[in-house]
Design brief:
Elements (H helix, E strand, L loop, with lengths): L6 H15 L2 H17 L5 H23 L7 H23 L11 H23 L14 H12 L9 H11 L1 H8 L5 H19 L25 E3 L7 E3 L7 E7 L7 H14 L4 E7 L13 H4 L11 H9 L3 E9 L2 E2 L1 H8 L2 H5 L7 E8 L4 H15 L2 E2 L3 E4 L6 H22 L9 H17 L5 H9 L14 H19 L2
């Protein structure tokens, strides 16, 4: 096939284009690397931000590359190509931002590994191959602002999704990838062979992956419809001794994770219970989760009197003889924990607050390390966000690995629009929580967590006597000598930061 222009004209066009748009190339790399980071460390809005990044790349390429700086002059073909790229950007906005159907999660399975290779190829290998073939900057296609690297990067991120990708989202990238062979043969663009591979292999893998049964996608439910929370496919379920709404798995399979949700609401058909049921059902769809929903209102919890006996003598000497230890045993037996509450007078419910007050000694003597935590709060209009922050704040104090919770808005009964928003928010939270359950249970602490531990242990060591229960707890755990609550390898900077926090804690305790 004869090209309408020479290789020299082709490369000269890139030269003029790259010079004219500088430093957009740098910004493109920043956006691309940020999208990769968001996929590796998923957050509440990471899916929308990644889809927005892809839409930005496709919009820029369609408008600026094809329409503003076309090779030669704007013509019907370049206008058509630009329109197609803008249309693809609209697809990403519609399916990834407005109504999120794309969920980006980088993990170690085969398909995501291929996606990682495509991402690396678009970011680094593509320009390096161009350099080796004599296409040095600025006479080369650059990442994020020219079609071929954008398409390769797009396939890489789509292979990181863990839900079905709409097939119409693949049409334009696939068609563009086919012309990669023409560019490679006509202009000696060896790097564009990778574009052809990305289009053929990427499309094939996505079609194959989405057609096979998988517990990682919502479509694995029969007919694609949500199912009521039930674990009968994996374990036998029996009603608890108190209420049929509390379900307990009688057997946990090998290698499975157990999640327990503590609900501070007595309304088994209220918005909080419905959200928790969906959350547990979404977790079950992954195929490796067992669980239980605990209705706090069905347990006997007495109000803390503030006598401080648990601080000074130990929690076993608490004068309140209720079901606290039963609930604590459920946490100890779990890999993941959920605290869920409606919003009452702008805070968590009374049931939840009484439950949390029975954790007073555990805030002094943290113990739930290696366990994941998240929160679900419902509100009518306002107040829920502060309640959610309150629950999320408590979690690391107790030792949990926190996954930021959600606040759901809607009166009871919810409107159809509110229910749809709730389902999407809960589905995203369940994916993030499942990811956290399969990450290292004992992560390297942040500087803040490390500093707080080292400061606290010095104030306890220097400010309390051996008769103190807190002192004895830290001593018996070996925390006065350890780097952190659990064995962990610290880098040089964190070792120095720890020593400084020790010094500050010692100084504060000495001058009290």
């Amino acid at each position: 096939m004869n090209a309408p222009f020479t290789t020299e004209q082709f490369l000269t066009n890139f030269e003029h284009y790259n010079v004219a748009i500088w430093p957009a190339q740098i910004l493109a790399y920043v956006v691309g690397l940020a999208a990769v980071a968001l996929a590796l460390r998923a957050g509440r809005t990471s899916d929308q931000l990644i889809a927005g990044a892809l839409a930005t790349f496709w919009t820029w390429t369609g408008v600026v590359y094809f329409m503003v700086f076309p090779l030669g002059r704007l013509s019907a073909p370049t206008l058509a190509l630009g329109t197609l790229f803008v249309l693809q950007a609209v697809v990403f906005i519609a399916t990834g931002v407005v109504q999120p159907k794309l969920s980006f999660r980088a993990h170690g399975a085969m398909v995501p590994i291929v996606g990682a290779l495509f991402v690396l190829y678009a970011l680094a290998v593509y320009p390096l191959l161009g350099l080796l073939m004599g296409h040095a900057y600025p006479r080369t296609p650059m990442f994020g602002v020219t079609p071929c690297p954008v398409v390769i990067f797009t396939y890489g991120l789509l292979l990181w999704t863990d839900q079905r990708v709409p097939k119409y989202a693949l049409v334009i990238p696939f068609l563009w990838s086919l012309q990669g062979l023409n560019a490679a043969l006509s202009f000696g663009m060896v790097e564009d062979y990778g574009l052809l591979v990305a289009g053929l292999l990427g499309t094939a893998l996505l079609v194959w992956r989405d057609r096979r049964p998988s517990g990682r996608r919502e479509a694995s439910h029969a007919g694609g419809a949500p199912q009521p929370y039930s674990l009968r496919s994996t374990v036998e379920i029996q009603p608890s001794r108190r209420l049929g709404l509390v379900w307990e798995a009688t057997e946990i399979g090998a290698g499975r994770k157990r999640v327990t949700a503590f609900v501070g609401s007595a309304h088994d058909e209220g918005n909080t219970y419905k959200a928790v049921r969906q959350f547990m059902d979404d977790l079950r769809s992954f195929g490796d989760i067992d669980g239980e929903i605990v209705d706090l209102s069905q347990y006997r919890l007495e109000t803390c009197r503030g006598c401080k006996t648990c601080f000074t003598e130990g929690e076993e000497h608490c004068p309140l003889k209720d079901d606290r230890d039963v609930l604590f045993e459920k946490i100890d037996a779990s890999d993941g924990v959920v605290f869920a509450s409606p919003t009452y007078v702008f805070q968590v419910s009374g049931w939840m607050k009484v439950f949390l007050d029975r954790f007073g000694f555990a805030c002094h003597r943290p113990r739930f390390f290696g366990k994941s935590f998240t929160s679900i709060v419902t509100q009518g209009f306002v107040g829920g966000r502060s309640a959610r922050k309150y629950l999320d704040f408590i979690a690391p104090v107790l030792g949990f690995n926190r996954v930021e919770g959600i606040c759901l808005t809607g009166l009871d009964p919810m409107t159809e629009n509110e229910e749809q928003k709730t389902r999407k928010a809960v589905a995203r939270l369940s994916r993030r929580f499942h990811d956290r359950l399969h990450h290292p249970a004992y992560p390297v602490p942040s500087l803040l967590k490390l500093g707080l531990f080292r400061f606290s242990r010095k104030t306890i060591q220097r400010g309390l006597t051996e008769a103190s229960r807190d002192y004895a707890y830290y001593r018996d755990k070996g925390w006065f000598e350890s780097d952190y609550y659990y064995p962990v390898r610290l880098g040089a900077m964190k070792k120095v930061a720890g020593l400084l926090a020790d010094a500050v804690g010692t100084m504060v305790a000495t001058h009290r």
